[in-house]
Specification:
Blueprint (H helix, E strand, L loop, with lengths): L2 H11 L8 H9 L6 H5 L6 H11 L4 H6 L2 H9 L1 H4 L1 H25 L1
Helix pairs in contact: 1-2, 4-8
Amino acid sequence: MDTQKVDMYIMANQKYFPAEKMIFIRERLLSMDDAKFPMIASLGLQDPTTLLIVSIFAGSFGIDRFMLGDVGLGVLKLLTMGGCGIWTIVDWFTVQRRTQEQNLSKLMMFL
């Protein structure tokens, strides 16, 4: 694949993935077939900053967990009001990392 196209993709989407995995992602994208690139470019990646904002304002209702696909934990968090607030505070510090890891796993499914 064209290095310029890969570098443009990485520059535009670097906030969606863990920083320590960017070199690995670049190498995998360079070895990828050009026909797969439109699928990669149209992946529905979640914005870690958006999920942090949702977690801050609606985290005690489990909305952040629902958005990440953790339906069971979202229901549990909703019923316990965020684990009496403790679970909500912990999620404020971990939601961005979990979102980036989930985006990485989505990307790896196509590579």
